[in-house]
Every structure is written in structure tokens, then in C-alpha cells.
Amino acid sequence: MEETYLLNVEGVKKKILHGGQGELPKFQDGSKITFHFQTLKDNFERTVIDDSREAGIPMEIIVGKMFKMEIWETLLSSMRAGEVAEFWCDAIHTGMYALVSKGMRRIAEGRDPLEGQKHRCGMGNMFDYHSTGYDDLDELQRTPQPLIFIMELFRVEEPSAYKRDTWAMSKEEKLAAVPVLHSEGNRLVLRKEFRQAAAKYQEAVICLRNLQAKEKPWEDGWLKLESLVTPLVLNYCQCQLELGEYYEVLEHTTELLQKHKDNAKAYFKRAKAHAAVWNEREAREDFLRVADLDPAMAAAVKKELKQLGERMRKKHVEDRKRYQGVPSLMPPPPPPAHPAATRTARTATHTPAQGAGTQHPWRSVIWAPLPWWQTYPWSQRAASAPASPKSSPAHPAQPTALSLQLGCGAATHRHAAFPAPCRAQRHGHLLPPPPQSSSGATPALLVPRGTHST
Question: pTM of the entire structure?
Fold first, then answer.
């Protein structure tokens, strides 16, 4: 294992741990390098910081695409396929390693490497948040130091030998890839493979958005690219409608309509998404907007509105059946023919306290809760209402309903002309003074079942 200086680069030393095979590969812009790496501190213990083998996935970089650790391209370009080498790098080459390691760790954890970052350079985000989220990387960031990289080179692929991701393509390659991806998506739609078709449309949109980012908004170049983006986004939304991803359709169509307010197809797809998630008012507004913008779609709009009305009526019927047993959501029951006809519940005879006036057997029946539409606040007129014409001194008229609040000793009297007391009164809140008998005793009655109204 011979120690040498690598390509006269200052602050770099190389040791070959295992020789490679064949000639030195040709590294050109766009070539993909696949390798494993291990990062160690330059201390007595040689503390391991990162090891790509633990994640089980080798590292890949594209030559000439401004990888943050520029020195890695230099190190790998000195290796042959199958070679294992150890590189010592001075601190002047390792200042960005904390950011690179942070992104790789997040990817290994299944997280977005750009999560939480603002639109600025990596160092700007570092100074903004003051931490990478990993203690060992924070230490490297505070105190830059030499590091040791052990690398094993697997293969080097030429640009034409692999399918490149959109970010690795040039401008000409992205523009050439868009119509191909569009055609592939249309073919997959005809085969009803909507998920795969949506991926093709999305990839094409990403290519165009990357190119748009380099143009000034609303100028000729930007508008030309936008005209290519719009049909791709609409096709993508149609696939998402077929897949049931309605809220994603709402998001993308709304964003599209912010730029193109007269796009009838975008309104139509958004209306269908609103209808699918039971936003009836929004769906009707968008459908009517479509008919105004494009009279040729009036027949389709009429059909969709008819289907929307049928679905909403069916939903209302189902909801009525579903909530049939909930008192607060049901319509009021019809009034009984005679109050006495409904008093069929279990009864018991109550004897007033000693010293009371006229002895009379009061009928007690089980209290039943009343729906909100039969509630009515206490009225002072109940106390001064005239007596029933059927009453007599021997048989005084029985109150239509009496409500007893257990635990606080308060009772309320309701005249036949008024509905039941409100729920707050039944539960002891703001209760009026209880009625008193001629002897001062409070009759202990419960509301008869079925006598909620006269």
C-alpha cells in the first residue's frame, strides 16, 4: 500500500487498499459513478461518521453536475473498477461534508432531504437554523477538520448507457423528452393504466418546470413553456380523478386557474372533484362557469349537473335514515289526539307531604328528552294563565308537564300553551322559581312521555 499524492491536488493523500481491474475509466460530463463509501475522523480511534453499506444502497453521482463535495469527483476519477482506496483530505476540502451527510441520512430515513429549508443556498439554511439535526455533524460544522474517505468503485456508465433523471438532463434533452413522455402517457391512458400514465405526465411537467425556472415569468420563453405545461397538468388531473385522488385534483386545478382564469377544462375537472367530495355549491358554480366559457360543453355540463342532483338527493335520503334515531336531527313528531291517550308509561302514585292542602294522587311518568325544536324559554304568562274550563275545586286541573331537576331541588311548571322548557332549564341552568302548591310543597312530577306539545 503505497502512499502518494493524487494529481498534485493540495491536501489529498491516497492509499490503494485493493487494486482494480482494467484500464482507467473515461470520466466525462454526464457519466454516472456508482460506489460505496465510508467516512472516518482523522483521530486515534478513526471514528466512523457514515457508511453507505449500512443503508444497503450504493452512492451515485453524475460527473459535471456540481455535486457539493467536488473533491469526490477528483478522488473517484483516479480509481479503476473494483478498486478500494483510502483518501485523506484536509479541512479545506471537507467543509461541505456536514450538509452532504445530512441529505444522505435523510434519504436513508425515507425523508425529504430539503425538508424545512427555505429557498436559499445550503449554507444560508445552515446559518438560519443553526443545526443540521445531528450532533456529530454539528460538531463538524463548528470545527472543520480533516476526514478519511474509504471508497470502493463499482462501475462508471457513459451518459448514453443509462436512463437519466430529469435533473441530470440538459435543456435540449429535456425539451426532446417532453413529447416522448406525453405520448407514453396517452398510450397508458388508453390501456387504463392511470397511475403509470400520471407518472409520465408528472415527469414531463417537472422537465418543463425546471426550464421555466430559468426564464423570466410572463415573457415569451416562459409563456411558450407554460403552453406545454397546461395540457400535461390537465391530463395528470384526469388520471388522478380516475384514481380517486380528488383533493390533489383540487390543488392542481386551482393553481392552474390562478394563472389561466378562462380555462374551461380546468374548471370542469375541478367541478368533478368538488362533486366527488360533496362540495355541491362549489361544484355547481364551476359547472356553470364551464357552460359560460365554452358553450360546446353545455351538454356535458347538463349531464353532470343532473348526476350531481341525483347523488345529493340520494345522500340526503341516506343521511335521514342514518340519523333517524338521533332526536336532535329528526323532525318533530305529530301531536297526540289527547294528552291522556299518550300516558301509557309506567305510573306511580305520589302523596304530597304532610300539611298539604287538598290530597290528590299525582301521576308520575318517566321523563323523556325533548328535541331542540320543541324547547321554549320560561314565560311568566304560565303562572297567570287561566285555569282549564274542565277543572273544578274537587278535581283541579293537572298540569300538562312538570320538570324536576334532581340534585338541586328545583322544579319548573309548563302551561299547556307553551312548549317544553329549553335544555338549559332542564339541566338546572337559569331555572325560574319552582311553582308552589297551596301548602307550599313542590309537586314532584316528571314529564309524561309523548306529551311534548298540545
Answer: 0.50
